[in-house]
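Q: Now give one record:
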Amino acid sequence: MIECRRCPRLVAWREEVARTRRAAFHNQTYWGRPVPAFGDPDPRLLVVGLAPAAHGGNRTGRMFTGDRSGDWLYRALFRAGFASQPESIARDDGLTLRDCLITAAVHCAPPGNQPLPAERANCQPYLEAELALTLRVRVIVALGGFAWTHVLRVLEGRGWRMQKPRPAFAHGVESEATRPEDEATEPVRLLASYHPSQQNTFTGTLTEEMFDRVWARARELIG
């Protein structure tokens, strides 16, 4: 994945950001490549975000690391027992995830945090592969409407049996889907959450109490 150059616009942007850097990080070497999934390789909880932040994951090389969204996410995962510590600062900070894997719909930082449809499609095989490799996943949490729609699209495209009608995105919405090969097993539960972006957290659209309820529900479903 980290050698992928399928999307010329994203390649140009991630590398330009890595060259110019933000003033606060002028002495750091940016990752500047696709950011792979992070966490437990055999999880029961899969978290899907939008894409790495230009000066977060694109700088540090780890999902939701080094930015305000990551601060919110890892504090909540720590409180729910999925993370070993509440901070995620750098790839070598000692953080580990328990029973949880974090990935994204798009693995390169997009300009304006807005991937194009073709870029989303180019990255889709990575999520499909992750779903095929994580057969113990019982809960998928989608952070934001983009991730929610993308997850449902990917599952439908891979032949998963989906709950009908498809639920529209809203914070706290739940749905379910069953792997095509799992005739006798319980379905995977899908949970929607507002993305912990500054746009949502600074305005109070997403509060820590609201966010904690999502992870408490995921913990309840996993057992």
